[in-house]
Amino acid sequence: MIVFFATKTQRHKAAQRNSFVNLCVLCVSVVLFFPLFSFSQQTQKIYLSGTGSDQTVQWDFFCTGGMNANKWTKIAVPSCWELQGFGKYDYGFAKDSVRGKEKGLYKHRFNAPANWKGKVINIVFEGVMTDAEVKVNGKSAGAIHQGAFYAFKYDISKLLNYGKENTLEVTVAKHSANQSVNEAERKADFWIFGGIFRPVWLEVLPTVHIEQVAIDAKVNGNFTAKIQTNAAPESVTLQLYSSLTEKFGNPIAMQWDKASNGITVKNQFASPKQWNAEAPILYKAVITIYKNGKELHTVTKQFGFRTVEVKQRDGIYVNGVKVKMKGVNRHAFRPETGRTTSKQISIEDVLLIKEMNMNAVRMSHYPPDDHFLDVCDSLGLFVMDELAGWHGNYDETTGKKLLKEMIDHDVNHPSIIIWANGNEGGHNFALDKYFTEFDIQQRPVVHPWQLFGGFDTQHYREYNYGIGNYENGKDIVMPTEFLHGQFDGGHGAGIEDYWEKMWHNPLSAGGFLWDFADNAVVRKDKNDSLDTDKHRAADGIVGPHHEKEASFYTIKEVWSPVFFERREIAEGFDGKLNIENRYHYTNTKECSFSWKLKRFDVTTSKETEGKATAPDIQPGAKGTVQIPLPADWKNYDVLYVTVKDRYQKELFTWSFPISSPATTGARMIVKEGNNPINTSEKDSLLTVAVKDVAVVLNKNNGLLVSVKNSKGELPFNNGPVLQDGVNNFKSFKQYKEGNNLVLESSFNQKESYNTLKWTIYPSGWVQLQVNYFPAAYFTNFAGINFSFPEKEIQSVTYMGDGPYRVWKNRLKGNQFGVWSKTYNNTETGEAPWIYPEFKGYHSNFYGGHFFTKTNRFTVVTENEGLFLRLFTPAWKTDQWHNYEPLFPTGDISFMQGISSIGSKTQRNETTGPMGSKNIFYDYEKDPSRALHINLYFNFSAQ
Asked: Does residue 33 lie within any of the structural domains?
């Protein structure tokens, strides 16, 4: 007898946690690889605020409007003031959001030691929303800074009282006095916050000091560094380090050109290790300036040797390798802290992105925190860094200033391989030339949503978009948003079709999904409830606290860099599986392969596991992996194959069923027995009693009317009802077949071409056989329905693919096994974000137990490829009615054809071939061509 265990889901979650822990260890080891060098003339960095959302400092605060307005109190810095209980929550589409006059007044006191006198003291803000007026000791530090997502600084050396306490005052306007800033940042499809939301610190610098270092390090060893100072020193030295103490190359010494405050260092380094998203090797450059032989100032910059090249009408090349973006759009966001994040949050986000086998991230729609880019550098992600501009853009004067701040801040990050000038019409073409002027590396620039710079980045193109550049054009195709994840549509739904086309299209450079996480904000004005602004921010692959939706695992499998060709395990299986290496830089021999065999049987429950030799397959090539199976492998139900990357991060675990439903069913179904079968009839109803079960069938139409056992009535009835088909079961005959009782309809090619047969066994088991023809050539569904009141179900334990539900265009990401699911009423993307969802379609159903609070019944099938449908989920729709999941009638169904799903931006049928309807053809109603469903029920409570 098969036992359906509940422990599979627990093991699944434990595996996720272990993978996460291992990656965290990796991340810490990489990030700490280069500690600070011990030089006497380094910049001192003195935080006035905290370092992030996990470490803040209380400042005095006064808010002029909304919650807790018009009183001096305290606020955590950095923070978004709405999340601290001040002001008004605004989503970008709110009619009054940009007209708001909301301001925050900040005060903070700090000491300036006497020994700072004679040095240069800068106050640095990494990000303020949105206009910032800064005063020190009542005097202006400089012009009001306008623009929320950019680091800026003021020299306050002459404003400080040395050896005494100083007062810092910052007046922050949530909405800008500069209309172009509001157009670019505030009128947008995301939450609009106010506040000093990134850290604030003091830079204590020598009188003569280095102001900026910009590095261009090519993969061939060509190295260029532009160094700017505030005044001319006499000389400069530069030394590279490849580890904590290991120097890379010889030191470079140069005399300073006293005519300017800048110098360009050029050198050729031999055989550097390259940085790429699969092997993110980092170096340090230590730059020191001198006068009279004395060190004046030393700075250390992290960088990587890598080359970015766009070959028109071909692709984007990193280190000479043509790459495809497996990317996602990411907001800097957390429900409790808004846009204020931390290094730990950046690590968590990047780990999750990489766990989905992604290699790229787009900064939508503004530059990120510096620590996020640090983590992308260390763990390996290609980055598209974006100048803010949603559907509006900065004017040229403002945009040029903010663009320089962005590039100066981010220039040395090797992870950044592309710049983006705004989003979806938020492009100021006048700014394009400044990317070239400001960026030493001359990285390519795109206009997300437009055809620009040789890249077609059009958003949400339909799969069969055949007019224009997508299929017939000559430019590189790289949609910066191509599948939309609102609720349960998009992301995983359609991605297999899209990716196979992208992977095999030479002009495709991949693309980016929209977006990473549901942006639900904690509403202090609504009892700390989570708000996604109705449907607008429920776009994530993960929930607001990183709850994983089904699409997470679909993406993980589809984007695995080790691709497994489909394989059905049959009698002649020799343990060889065909694979393709879809890495760009990594040989599969650097991965590890393991396997496990498992049998789901209570009396002989067993599993065995082992390792497989990693095959030597170059990137882009195909080969095989040999699984060293034991001689008794056929006695198991499933083969699992797990592949881990060079860092022991799981790429995916594939499952290959060995046993068929008929095989596992034979171990569970009992037909023989000594129980008498008693019948009684009343009008059209036939009551069959056997063991402790009483089944009532309608002799006219063959439907199940009711069923009960010794524990009471089971509310499973009113079936089988065909979907999509005609219940034309007629001319029933009742007869004995050995010790079995049979109720069977008759076949008539014109009037009753669909047939039904009930068989009741003396064991108490009941068999249902349905032969049917769908009603149309194109059909959303094929299968049978039963009624079952949703309020009565408590849980289900089943054998099949799980634990997540599926759609016709989202079948990957699950594993074959035994899964236990407790009832929930989750609506994807909405509170309480309980996953996996209970309701929906479940694939490759072999059998299962259905539990009420006081009773249960069992269903087993001999059909391969059957879907179990559990009830109808609630859902919202979009204004275009693209996202409207389709479900059959009834409550519990056994389907051979299910529906696909659309998204906010795509109808289901435009997501690719898998999104189309099911096709069935049989005009003549030949019985041999009918679809067959064969189910066994055990209604007994014994």
From this structure: no
